[in-house]
From TrEMBL:
GO molecular function: monooxygenase activity
Domain of life: Bacteria
Matches recorded under PANTHER family: 2-NITROPROPANE DIOXYGENASE, 2-NITROPROPANE DIOXYGENASE-LIKE PROTEIN
Classification via Pfam families: NMO
UniProt protein name: Nitronate monooxygenase
InterPro entries in alphabetical order: Aldolase_TIM, NMO
Keyword Flavoprotein in annotation: yes
Taxonomic placement: Bacteria, Bacillati, Actinomycetota, Actinomycetes, Kitasatosporales
CDD domains attached to this UniProt entry: NPD_like
Keyword terms: Flavoprotein, FMN, Monooxygenase, Oxidoreductase
Length: 355
């Protein structure tokens, strides 16, 4: 175990011991993983997009019952019930609100007025500049190596761009899984790293063992980017289902989209108009078919099939490229201790000028 602490603008901002963030992954970042991450000294982020508002409140209270450490909640800024979810965060005294898409200036102001730290995730310098101007406290910068919806600019190119462009703490995401990566990110000027796939592959993650085994068996070449799931670039494991989606025509895609949309509507108690409205909100000016718009609103059901039900034949598995480098399932405490010990060893091994 390492006794190393690396105080950064991130640790000072949110009050965690280590400059490490466990990202808010749908169906994965539930109370058990979030509280284990928080207790390990990292910033755990609860994923709320796959929960109803009542489920979110219950999950927040469960995390609070498991840890006294700071944690956050990830929100979809474009969700129809975003205001209700913000109310839960404020009422329950959650430390951090993170966003997969840029929240509005008004939403940022409301959260900050309530003492909540606002940390949007962005994939381009101009987006970081926009949310910084609106009052965001920090940003997570995800390069193309990251899992889930992602861009095509590598972290090593995107990160220094953003660090040079804004004066708020920048958290690096995409391609991180060990202490060497943490030191590298800090050397670029980041205030910490955010990891998704690495925390998914821990013993504290509730993802079924058979699914974890698929991740552990994957090589770097087994991780791909497809637009066939919801019309947006989505990095995931290359599976039989993904191959089928890549080959599928418009009619079969539409039928599949309607079926999954119906299931998602039952799961979340959303109306059809709400479902379509949320799907349209994810369009962002892109030329998407109706099947893609429906899938954009219910992609969580494809993730649930794998992440909750263990059906890798029916679901997709979002994954960063680092899955090809991971071969074990430590606890969150073991993982964070290992990352910090590796960071300490890396720093000691760096040449000292003039020595």
């Amino acid at each position: 175990m390492s006794d190393l602490t690396l105080p950064t603008r991130l640790t000072e901002l949110v009050g965690v011991r280590h400059p490490i963030v466990q990202t808010g992954m749908g169906w994965v970042a539930g109370p058990r993983l979030v509280s284990a991450s928080a207790n390990a000294g990292a910033l755990g982020i609860l994923a709320s997009a796959t929960m109803t508002v009542d489920q979110l409140r219950s999950a927040v209270r469960e995390v609070k019952s498991r840890t006294d450490a700071p944690f956050g909640v990830n929100l979809r800024a474009d969700a129809g019930d975003a205001e209700e979810r913000v109310r839960v965060i404020v009422d329950e005294g959650v430390k951090v609100a993170s966003f997969a898409l840029a929240p509005s200036r008004e939403l940022i102001a409301r959260l900050k007025d309530a003492g909540v730290v606002v940390i949007p995730s962005i994939g381009a310098r101009r987006h970081a500049e926009k949310v910084a101007a609106w009052g965001a406290d920090a940003v997570v910068v995800q390069g193309g190596e990251g899992g889930g919806h992602t861009g095509d600019v590598a972290t090593t190119v995107l990160l220094p761009q953003v660090v040079d462009a804004v004066d708020i703490p920048v958290i690096a995401a995409g391609g991180f899984h060990d202490g060497r990566g943490l030191v590298a990110a800090l050397s670029y000027g980041a205030a910490g790293v955010a990891m998704g796939t690495r925390f998914l592959l821990t013993s504290d993650s509730t993802v079924p063992d058979a699914v974890k085994a698929r991740y552990l068996a994957a090589t770097v070449k087994d991780v791909t980017v497809t637009t066939k799931v919801d019309g947006l670039p989505h990095r995931m494991l290359r599976t039989e289902l993904v191959e089928e989606l890549e080959r599928s025509g418009r009619v079969s895609s539409l039928l599949r989209a309607v079926r999954h949309a119906s299931a998602f509507r039952r799961e979340t108690k959303m109306s059809w108009p709400q479902l379509v409205r949320d799907g349209l909100a994810m369009k962002h000016g892109k030329d998407m078919t109706w099947s893609q718009i429906l899938l954009a609103a219910n992609t969580p059901m494809l993730l649930k099939a794998s992440m909750v039900e263990g059906r890798t034949d029916l679901g997709v598995m979002a994954s960063g490229q680092v899955a090809g480098l991971i071969d074990d399932l430590p606890s969150c405490a073991e993982l964070v201790d290992r990352v910090m010990a590796e960071a300490e060893a890396t720093l000691r091994a760096l040449p000292v000028p003039g020595a």
